[in-house]
Every structure is written in structure tokens, then in C-alpha cells.
Amino acid sequence: MKMLAELKVGKPGSAFLFPGRCSGFIDPDMFDAEVWKLIAVKAGMPGTRFHDLRHFFASQLIANGETAAYVRDQMGHSSIKVTFDTYGHLFPGRGKEASDRYEKAMRDAREKCTADVRKTFAIDGEEKGGSDATN
User: Fold this and answer.
1) Residue-wise over 76-99: b if at least 16 C-beta within 10 A, else e?
2) FRET pair for 104, CA 20 to 30 Å: which of 13, 20, 26, 87?
């Protein structure tokens, strides 16, 4: 951050760090070719895209335990669905939590069914005079 702040020294408050021609926005393709590609190669990471930094930032937020809502806000996503569609696989324990909920629901359903069956047979057995069966 210090390095970026030093790049702004002596420039007007609204000046871009990487201005395009005529002091406007830099064309993204020009930025990639003339600025980012050189940085990536010098850093020993050829083929890395500038956009990869965005994904890295989001993945670090998630790894540090930030909520999906916070990640959504930081990334500027239009909805939490966009965040989960893109980064849902990175949220720790999501699969285990879903699996645990499913297992509990199935266990509860089996227990209820078993109890209902036992109750039904217990009542039927009493009405028929016990469990003596004749052929």
C-alpha cells in the first residue's frame, strides 16, 4: 500500500495510478499488455491475469473466515447467489454441514417411521388378543 501511495505523490487527488491516454481510464487490454504482463513476468508468474488478483482477494477473505455477505459486498456482486456460484466451493465445511443436515433428517424420519410402525403393531396386537397367530 505504501508503494501505491507513493505513486500518487505529486498527482491530483483524482488522478489514476495507471492513466490511459488523455488522462482517462486505461484500456483494460492495454493495461494487461503494457503494465500487468511485465509485472507478472518479473514476479515469476507469467500467464497470471490481473483479474486473478480479484479471485485471490475473495479466496483470502473466505479463508480468513469472512461471511458470504461480506465477500459479496467487497466483490461488488449483485446478489449472494453470484458470490456462492463463484466461490461457494471455498467456504469451509459447507459440504459437511449440508451432509450432516441430510443425515439428521434421514435419521429423524427413520426413527419416526419406526415408532409409528411399532405403535401401530402394538395397538393391533392388543385388539387381536396378543400375538397368537393361527393358520
Assistant:
1) ebeeeeebbeebeebbeeeeeeee
2) 87
- H helix intervals, the chain: 2-8, 28-31, 37-42, 51-63, 68-75, 80-87, 94-127
Mean pLDDT by 10 residues, the chain (135 residues): 67 67 77 89 92 93 92 95 92 73 84 79 57 54
Cα 68 to its chain centre, rounded Å, is: 6
Rounded CA-CA distance 33/37 in Å is 6
C-alpha cell recorded at residue 67 = 461471511
Give the predicted TM-score (pTM) of the model.
0.55
The distance in angstroms from the start CA to the end CA of the chain is 89
pLDDT exceeding 70 applies to what percent of the chain?
A: 74
How far is C-alpha 118 from the chain's CA centre? 44
Eight-state DSSP code of residue 77: -
Cβ atoms within 10 Å, residue 121: 11
